[in-house]
Amino acid sequence: MDAAEQYLAGKPVRFVGAHPMAGSHKTGAASADVNLFENAYYIFTPSDLTSPDTLDEMKALLSGLHARFIEIDAKEHDRVTSQISHFPHILASGLMEQTAVYAREHEMTRRFAAGGFRDMTRIAESEPGMWTSILLSNREAIIERIEDFKERLDGIGQAISKGEEEQIWNFFNQAREQRQAMEIHKRGGVDSSYDLYVDVPDEEDVILRILELLRGTSLVNIHINEENREDVHGILQISFKNAQDLERAERLISENTDYTVVIK
User: Which PROSITE patterns does the record cross-reference, listed alphabetically (predicted)?
Assistant: First the structure.
């Protein structure tokens, strides 16, 4: 923002920083999704070069995305995204790097990695060039988040070392309550999807039968959890783009099969 204001000063240009809070770790035209920005936040960071009518024109131009527009100060934007977007990518990539090294001596590490590990490291597949640029453009805020996290890791590490059961329990319980209270359970966050888990038997054509029931329903992804089922609700995981499709799928599968269906 500072560079834009400096470079464009005195020129007949109206400038406003903006980007959607939605995306995917996948790249290329084959991964395009016409509904990618639907109900996601689209952030505007007005500058000194933003005239009163600029935002209205931008919202009209981008209305076909069906996004949720929001305005925020540029510096506050950098602080917020350093915590909930930039720093998580560092964690995911760091965990993958640590695991890859650990797996050299403990070969079963890769095989035992289950749902929790998969969910935490999905974004480690993101495009490295883009994230290198992002981190270098928001250094101060990100470094502050890294230092803060180091202290938190040291704190729980000391509690484990000393066997402080109550402190460890509070650590997990507070995190659980805080996550349940966040809006990540509502549509409008990053990469939002709606997941349904079906506990299916190991029988021929059972998955084809379920997909036939869901004919006409838009699916985001299908995943078969077959090696390690720790912390997953069922062997077949189906992701949908919206709550309506999720509810329809739950109803159809429950009415036409005796499989256990769980919504997460």
Answer: PDH_ADH
Domain ranges of the chain: 1-24+31-72, 76-179, 194-263
Phi, psi of 126 (to 5 degrees): -65, 160
Interstrand relation of 236-240 and 260-263 (parallel, antiparallel or unpaired): unpaired
Beta strand pairing status for 68-71 and 41-46? parallel
Which CATH fold would you assign to the domain 76-179?
6-phosphogluconate dehydrogenase C-terminal fold (1.10.3660)
Q: Of all residues in the chain, what percent carry a pLDDT higher than 70?
A: 91
Locate 121 and state its tokens: 């490291």
For residue 85, give the DSSP letter: I
Helix, strand and coil in the chain, % to nearest 5: 55, 15, 35
Q: Judging by beta carbons within 10 Å of its beta carbon (0-12, 13-18, 19+), is residue 245 exposed, middle or buried?
A: buried
- Express each pLDDT in 4-32 by its tens digit: 888 998 899 999 999 998 776 667 777 77
* CATH topology for the 1-24+31-72 domain: Rossmann fold (3.40.50)
Distance CA 10, CA 48 (A): 11
Measuring CA to CA, which residue among 122, 121, 138, 141 is closest to residue 130? 138
Residues 6+ apart with CB under 8 A from 60: none
CA 218, 224, 225 angle in degrees (round to 5)? 135
Residue with tokens 């290329």: 28
Cα 119 to Cα 64, 123, 163, 189, 190: the distances in Å are: 31, 8, 29, 16, 14
